[in-house]
Amino acid sequence: MTREILFRGKSISTGEWIEGDGIHYPKSINYLGTCWIDGMEDRANDWIQVDPATVGQYTGLCDKNGVKIFEGDILRDGLGDDGVVTYFESIASFKYQVGNEVWNLNEGDPNRSTQLQYTEIIGNIHDNPELMEVSE
Description:
The protein contains one helix and eleven strands.
């Protein structure tokens, strides 16, 4: 099985989202707390400094509109419920939670394809934190 390894993060200098296939956290004392993504297409082989708090990995999946789903994206399901895509390192799995339901975004979940055909990205936790505020 081959899957596309891709990361996304917000550029420190421009604030724009950068996608790339390489990620580097330098160990030099001058760069502690920084993160660099190897840009793609017109930025191939350009290491762009991004905010490490915004870095998320591509899940390998797309929403109902064909948009790539990254860790940190906020998804809305077919019933209008919202959830955040999270990576669980202990089980090497992407999931998102809608209410009390937790959906596995990896191949092992038999409901994945049905769920994703009604699901769309409505934002992400970095640009749209207000979307995750709970109304009482």
